[in-house]
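[scheduler] slot 2 assigned
[scheduler] job type: sequence-to-structure, two independent chains
[scheduler] chain ordering preserved from manifest
[runner] begin chain α
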Amino acid sequence: MTCDRCDQAAKDGYDYCPKCGRSLRGCEMCRTYADQGYEYCGNCGKRLKEKDDRTLEKAVFIAVPFVVAMLAIEAACMLYWFPDTLAGVKDLSLNMFLLLPSAVSLGVLTGAGLQAYWVLLVVAIVASGLVMLYQSRAIFDRRSANYVEGISRTSLFWIAVLFSADMVVVLVIAAIEGSLGYTIAVPDDLPMDLSPEAFLAYANAAVWEEIACRVIPIGIPMVVVAALCGKKDCIRYLLGGTGVTRVAVVLMVISAVVFGLAHESGWGAAKVVPMIFSGLMLSYLFIRFGIYASIMLHFLIDYTALMIPAVGQEIYSFILIAVIVLGFISVAKLAKDIRDGVRRIDRMPVWIQESSDSKRD
C-alpha cells in the first residue's frame, strides 16, 4: 500500500518512494488490476487511480451561484441608478488620497470633474466584471473532462472562496474583539441607502483603494523587481496577475497591513485586524489574477451594504446566510491551501515568475 509520500514522489518523477521505498513504476500486474477497476494493484500496491483530492473545491463551488447573484444585483443597482448618481454627484465633493502609509490628500474632486470620475469608476467596474467572466468561462463548460480543475483556476471561483471566507473570518474576529470589549465604530456619515453619496463612495472604494493599496505598494515595486531581473515587459507587473513569488508575498502582507491601519481613523482600532485579513484576500487576487479580480471582490464586499434597500431584507438575508454557511468550507480550503503553500515555499520563485501563467500558482 502507499504511504503519504508516494503520490507526490511519483509526480516528482521518482522511481521509488524516498520514505517507504516502494516502487512507483508498478509491476506486470498493474494493468490487469486497473482493467478490472481496482484502485490499487493487488500485487505491488501501486495506486492505479488518481486520488480525488478536490472535495473542497466541489463543495465551495456551490457558493459561486450565490456570489454571481450578489454581483448581478449590485451591478444592476449601480447601472440602474447611474443617471441619478451622475446628476447627484455634481453637488458632492470627494477627497482623493494615497496611503504612504498614512493617508496623504491629493486634492478634492467636485462638479463636472467628479461626474467624469463617476463615469470612469463605472467603466472600470464593468470592464473588470467582463474580464472576470471571460477568464472564468471554464465554469460554464461542464462538458470539460477536467471541469473541477478548470473552475478552481478561475478568478470567479476564487472570488467566491475569498468572499465567503472573509465573511466568516471577519464575523469571528468581530465576535472575539467584542467579547474583549472592542467594538467597531461605524462612521456616522457612512451612507447606507440608494443615494448618490453611497454609490459614489463604494465605487470609489472598489477602484481607487485598489489602486492606492495594491497597484502602488505591490504593482510598482514588482515593476522595479522585474526591471532589475532584466524583464523587458516589466511594465505588465504594474496591474498584477503575474504570479506568486516570495517577494510578492512580502509585498502582499505589507499592503494588507497598510490597508488595515488605514481604517483605524474612521472605524476604530477594532476594524484594523478584520481589514488586514480582507487586505490579504484582495492582495492575493491582485497578485494571482490581476487588479480586475481585486476590484470585483472589493466591489462585491462594499456594495453589499446597498442590497438591503435594493432587494429587501428577506432576499438579502437568504443569500448572505447561504454565503456565510459555505464560508466555513471556504475557510477549510484556505487553511489547506496555506498549509500546502508553506510546504512548497522552498520551490517558490524568489523574485518573479518565469511563466506568465499565474493561474498555475
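[runner] end chain α
[runner] begin chain β
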Amino acid sequence: MLDAVRQVTQPNVIILHNENPAWPQSDKDWAMKFVEMLSNGLRDEGYVVEPIKFFDSLAVLDSYNPREWLIWNWGEEMAGESWTEPLVAAEMDKRGFAYTGASTEVLKFSNNRLDVKQRLRDSGLPTLPAQVFTTPEQAAREWTIFPAIVKGANQHASFGIGGDSIAHNPDQLAKRVAYMRSEYNDNSLVEQFLDSREFQVAVWGNGKPEVLPPVEFDYSAFSDMRDRLYTFEWKFDRSSRGYREIKMPCPAPADKPVWRERLEKTALEAYKAIGLRDYGRIDLRMLGDEPQVLDVNPNPDLDHISVLYTGAKLQGLNYGQMASRILQWAAARMPK
C-alpha cells in the first residue's frame, strides 16, 4: 500500500524542458511527445499546466511567481552541453522555485560514477570494484578482470554504452577507452561485466521513501553477451531489435522471492545514500545470489514503458496520478 501524500496545494505547473536547435526534427518530435503526455496527464488531474521550452537561458521564468508555480524539471542540458542538469537546477534555485526531482548538489554528484560507487561502498552497499583510466595504455596495463565494461566516468545511465563497451582482453579495453576519449572527451570507468540477470527498481517519496516492484530486463532472446545490455538505442529506437525483443516482467523475479526482497532493500538504501528525492531508479545485476548496484539514476525516464510507471500501474495509478504524486512531494518545498 502506498503511503498517503499530503495534498499541500494544487500548484500551477511549469513543465520545463530543453530543446537544442541542432537536434534533428525526429528528436524534437520525440521530446514533445512526452511533454504532451505529461501535460495531458496532469491536466486530467486538474492542474493548470504550461510547458516551457528553453535552450541557453531560463530568463523566461522571471515572469512567474515561485509561490504560485511549481516546476516539473525536465531540463537535461543548458546550451546544448551534455550533463549540465546541475546548471539548470541551479538557475531554478537562484530564482526561488521548487522543482521535481533531485537537487542541484545531487545532480552534480551523480555525474561522477566513481564518487557514486564510493558513497555506496561507504554505506555498506554492494557495488563492483572499479577503476578510472585516463589513457588506453594505462587501462591495458593495469586492468586484469575480463569480461570488463567501459563506461564514461563522468556520465550516467546508458549514455555512451553499447555492445562494444564490453571488452574481453586488454586490446579491446584500450580501444574502447580511446573511443570514450575521442567521442566524449571523458575518462573511462572500468569494472567487471556481469553477464547475469538485470533488474531496475524504482523508488519514490521523501522521508519514508517506498520501493515499487522490480522490473527484470530479460535478454533470453540474445545469444551474444554484447547484446545483453539495455543501451540508449534500445531504449528509444522502436525499430531496434532490443526495443522489440527485450522482455520486462514486473514484479520480478517471480522465480526468486528472496532475490526480490534483496533487490528492494538494496535499491531503497541506495536511493537514501545518494540523497535522491521525489523519485529515482536503481539499476542492478546479480552476482550469485546478491544484487550489485550498477547505477543510481536521479530524475529517470518517465515514458510509457519506464520502470517507475510500470510499478505505479501495478499500484492502480494512471500516468497523471503517478505524476501528481511526484508533484505533491515537490510542492512541499514551495516557498510560503
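[runner] end chain β
[qc] chain β: The chain has three domains: 12-101, 109-127+195-298, 130-192.
[scheduler] slot 2 released
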